[in-house]
Structures are given as structure tokens and as C-alpha cells.
Hints:
Layout: H1 2-26, H2 51-61, E1 64-69, E2 72-77, H3 80-88, E3 96-97, H4 101-107, H5 117-133, H6 139-158, H7 167-182, H8 192-207, H9 211-218, H10 220-225, H11 229-254, H12 263-273, H13 284-315, H14 317-330, H15 346-359, E4 368-369, E5 374-376, E6 379-381, E7 386-389, H16 391-395, H17 438-455, E8 456-459, E9 471-472, E10 478-479, E11 485-488
Parallel strand pairs: 2-7
Antiparallel strand pairs: 1-2, 3-4, 4-7, 5-6, 8-11, 9-10
The structure holds protoporphyrin IX containing FE (HEM).
Amino acid sequence: xxxxxxxxxxxxxxxxAQFLNMQWKSCGFPPGPTxxxxxxxxxxxxxxxxHRSLKKLAKTYGNxxxxxxxxxxxxxxxxxxxVKNGLTNNSExxxxxxxxxxFNKLADGKGILVSNGLIWKQQRHFGFxxxxxxxMGNKGMERGIQTEARYLVEFFRDKEGxxxxxxxxxxxxxxxxxxxxxxxxxxxxxxxxxxxxxxxFDYIVAFGNSRFYYMCEMFPWFAxxxxxxxxxxxxxxxxxxxxxxxxxxxxxxxxxIDEPEDFIDFYxxxxxxxxxxxxxxxxxxxxxxxxxxxxxxxxETTATTLRWALLYMLVYPDIQDKVQKELDAVLSPSHLIxxxxxxxxxxxxxxxxEILRFSSIVLITIPREAVKDTTVLGYHVPKGxxxxxxxxSALFDPDYWETPHQFNPGHFLDKGGNxxxxxxxxxxxxxxxxxxxxxxxxxxLFIMFCSLLQKFKFTLPEGVKEINTDFVFGSTMKxxxxxxxxxxx
Length: 489
Ligand code: HEM
């Protein structure tokens, strides 16, 4: 009895001391909800960063505020000015990625997306340098995208106007662009391994911003020992990694490193080149994780945006009409769409950008971490502080967009109908960790979107009057499943 009283008193004393310590520590940070020991202040947003909770947070505490993820402070940036300045003013200082229990379990600090320091610098530099060598942003990759666009057109043509869910064929087309570059081959629509790979990535992405994810970060012991989502996420990750290792093995057997044809060949050549270089970060684990990251970063995002693109064409048939009129006026019906065509198609280009803005598929960046003591928006930020930028709030900032909550291609057009870029267009984030795949994504979206609209009029299935434009909440904001009819023009 006595022992229990002593133990309880001790725990209460420790918790109170922790509580006071956290209040004291939070003094130098921007305002925010009261942090408590163990759970921090993430309870205030109901253990999930969604649109509503982040908006409420900014309304209550301002555009620069603090949430505590357990015992770690996290600055939350809201609205264009805070997001842009916070990520770019001392860009290198805030270029770290948060290292947490889950991230370490899933990526072990390797690859590009959640790595840090020398590993991040070398893998990002090499990864995207190699993609450029393989044609990213030029004719080389354009041919790959045109090929996938052609398969997608064939898919819809074969359906002969019958109602169909476009999701999987779109995911298939977009993923195949990256597969061709990384593995040197594409998958057929029926391929079982391909279906399993997509399922595995989907699961990891959905896990990323779920309540369970935050719980696992706060209570790693339970996450480790209870069967459940974390185990499934790890299983999904292992499945993808063993597939990539299999690909590496077969590339090794082909022995093409003197005349590399795809990303894996180039990486194997790099391994050979750097095998005696001290401190080199090029090894098989980083190769597997980089491939994983290119696939994760490059397919789900672009495919989700393309799914929104077709959905918006159903919801706004007048805009679909206008795009088709522009395509017909400028290009011959048999013209093979290329990225250069955007210069002659300002309205269509504006529509593609408005799709990226309005669908706003990335709500928040994967949190950054201050790599040294620095200043963010006038606040002293100690090394290790997390920074979470609400990209979505910049894309809908009423001070920067005329009609933020309307789908309005005019946001990207001047009075003369010419295409204009907008400073608040931060769909690909900003600063040192901004998306390195922006050009590739825009190229894919433009070519696939135009190729489809050149050939088909998209309509709602007979009898369907309305379509759900709400998103399904996850790491990316996806549309609800829907069906459409692609009628040959
Ligand atoms: C519509 C398509 C896409 C959108 C909206 C998008 C958006 C983003 C955003 C917001 C970030 C986070 C940046 C930050 O932390 O500040 C990011 C990072 C990243 N993206 Fe994309 N992305 C897209 C397509 C692509 C493509 C096609 C690739 C490559 C093949 C790619 C590869 C990556 C990688 C590797 C990172 C991590 C960069 C780093 O941590 O250094 N993304 N993307």
C-alpha cells in the first residue's frame, strides 16, 4: 500500500515537473495550445492535421504557432507569407527532415524523402541528376509519357463510352512512366506484382497522416508490440523493397553498367565508381530507398492529380469545352501532344495549373527539422525544432487569389489571355527541400490531360446527376471513387 502511494506520488511529481518544464520551454516559441507531458499539444488538433483543425489553429493562435508532438516543439506555418518566408528565408537551416520512431522504422534515414545531411544531399543530387540524364524535362522522358498517354487513350477507347472508374488505369499510366525510367520496363495492366506494389504504396501513404500514425509516434512501445497498422505498413514497405532488390539482382546479372540504360544501371555504376571513396553514401540500401522514394513521390501524387483533373472536367463541362476548342483550333486532330505545345495553349495550361491548385493534394509538407539554431519568421528556433508548412493554406490564401474557393483557370491568365505564373502557387513547396519532380509532374499532367481531351468528351454516366467533389483524407487528398464515360469526339 505504502509503496503504491510512494510510486503514484513520484509519478505525479515527475509529471508536474515535466509540465512546468514544458511551459517554461514553450515561452520562446510562437503561441499555441498548452502542451502536456507525453502527449504534447497534438490533442488540440485531435491527433490529426486536417484542413479544419489547421484553420482553427491559425484562427486561434495566428499564422505562426506551435504544436508539441510529445516533447518536441513544431512550428506550424499557415498562409502564403508564413509558408514561403518560413521555408525560404533561412532555407538551408530548415532543410532537415524530422527523424522519428516511425520514419526510422520505415526508411532508416536512407534515400531522399526522409533522409538528412550528407545522405540526403548526395542521394537527391545523384537521383535527380540521373533522372535528367535519362530525359527528365526533355524529349527523352517526353517519349515515355507519350507512350503511356497512348495506352491510356486505348484503354478508354476500348470501353466504347461505357461507364468506368478511371483510377487504376491512371495510376497504371503514371507509375509506368517512373517504372520505365527506374527499372527499364513497364508493367501490363493485368500484372499481379504491379497491383501488389500499388496496394503497398497506397497503404503506406494512407498510414502517413492517420490518427494511428500520431499514436505510434507518441507511444512507440505499444506500436512495436501490438499487431496493427504499423506492422502492415512495415510489411508493405518490405514487399516493395524486396521487389526492388530483385530488380537490382537482375540488372547486375545483365551487367550493363558500361552502357547504363536506366536508373538502376546508373546507380550500379555509381557504386562501382565510389567503392573506395571514404564517406560515400552510395550503397545498396540507399539505392533501394531512393528507388522507393522516386516511386512514392512520383506516382501517387501525379496520378491523384490526374484523377481530380478528369473529375473537374465532369463537374465543369463548360471548361472542358473551352479546352477542347483551344486544342482543336491550335493542333491538328492527329497531332502528338508534346510539352512544348503548352506555349500555344495558354488556356489549357492555365486549367492544368488550376487543377493542381484547386485539388491541393498535399495538405502539409512532411515536417522539416531545423538542422542548427536559427531564426524563422523572427522567432529563435533551436536545432531539432520541427517545422510544418501548410501548403494548402497558400493555395487558398484569400489575399493572393481572387476567388480562392472557385475552380477558376483565370487565376493563371492575364487580361490578354496569356498564361501567367503566380507567386502563391506553392503546390510543390519551396526552399531546399521543394519537390525535385515538379517539371516531370507538370509534363506528365499536361501531356496526359491534353491527349485525353483531344480524343474524348468526358461525361457523367447516364442517370448520374451529381458527383462528390469532397476529398478522402490521407497523406494526399484523393477524390472519392467515381465513374465517367469517355465518348470519342
Ligand atoms: C502533382 C505532382 C506532385 C506534387 C503535388 C508534389 C509535391 C511535393 C511536395 C509538396 C513535396 C514536399 C516538399 C517539402 O518538404 O517542402 C515533395 C517532395 C518530393 N517529391 Fe514531389 N510532388 C509531385 C510529383 C513528384 C514527382 C513526379 C516526383 C519524382 C519522380 C517527386 C519526387 C519528390 C521527392 C523525391 C520529394 C522529396 C524531396 C526532398 O525531401 O528533398 N514528386 N513533392
